[in-house]
Amino acid sequence: MVEAVTLLREDESLRGKVSEAEWDTRVQLAAAFRICYGRGWNGSTANHMTARIPDEPEHFLMNASDFSWDEITASNLLKLDHDGKVLSDTDRKPRPAGLNFHSAIQREMPQMACSLHLHPMAGIVVSAMKEGLMYFDQASCAVYGQVTYHDFEGIAQEADEAPRILSDLGDKYTMIMRNHGLLTVGRTIAEAVAYMGRLVHACETQERLLSTSATPVPLSQDVLEFTASQMAERAGNQPIGDTEFQAAFRRQIRLDPSFMA
């Protein structure tokens, strides 16, 4: 317990030591980690989320491998360059597999500001189904046409796998990594979290329905396409998820504002 307390307290606040844009991104990203933890998406020190620093687009923020997501703060996030070099004054590092493809996303997809990879149980279940994701309800339509797949190749730390992940992702926002987990990207942190929420919901719905003795009725392709077009028209060409992220951000402040340190 003493070691754990020391680990958490040895970081000094970086507020005032980095640009305003970087600090704001750090606070938003730290909040996103806490929000994901609170939703039950990740309870370990594994998995990663990254965010590009707006005034230093060649640099991005990422979590170290020794913090649970409910321990992440604005100051203990790592700063890295596109080659995966840690620029923060620390010996901590991200996990090699996460660094491999997250750094590739940051380097090769400048239009995306955030990437998020998780192993939620429902996502793992669907990722192992030959049929992939099926669509049973209105909310699931929010990811229709945005889901791509990448076959499992082992722990994703090999350099030559990262280009294949990017190729399979293409211009979409969500990916089911088969026999593995889920990946989303976004033009904002809020958008990546929103797409993850929609993807997790669709996976949870499928898992629950297929576990019953009833005969589920998937939505028809015509209905899927029409509903997805309605949602796209409502969103315009703007990033999704900002309103719900801000509400979750305020809730996180009420619950535990330590992420802002």
Structure report:
The structure is a single chain. The chain is an alpha+beta fold and 261 residues long. It has one domain: L-fuculose-1-phosphate Aldolase, CATH 3.40.225. The chain has 8 helices and 7 strands. The chain has a 7-stranded mixed beta sheet, with helices on both faces. Strand 1 and strand 2 form a beta hairpin. Helix 3 packs across helix 5. The longest helix is centred in the last third of the chain and has 22 residues. The N terminus is likely disordered.
Number of domains: 1
Radius of gyration: 18 Å
How would you classify the helix and strand content by structural class? alpha+beta
Largest sheet: 7 strands, mixed
How many helices? The count is 8
- Percentage of residues in DSSP E strands: 5-15%
How are the SSEs ordered, and which strands pair?
Layout (H helix, E strand, L loop, with lengths): L1 H8 L10 H19 L9 E6 L2 E7 L15 E4 L14 H13 L5 E5 L2 H7 L19 E4 L10 H9 L4 E4 L3 E6 L2 H22 L10 H15 L6 H14 L6
Short key terms for the protein model shown above:
261 residues; alpha+beta; L-fuculose-1-phosphate Aldolase; seven-stranded mixed β-sheet; 8 helices; disordered N terminus
Provide a concise account of the structure shown.
The chain has 261 residues and is of the alpha+beta class. It is built from eight helices and seven strands; from the N terminus they run ααβββαβαβαββααα.
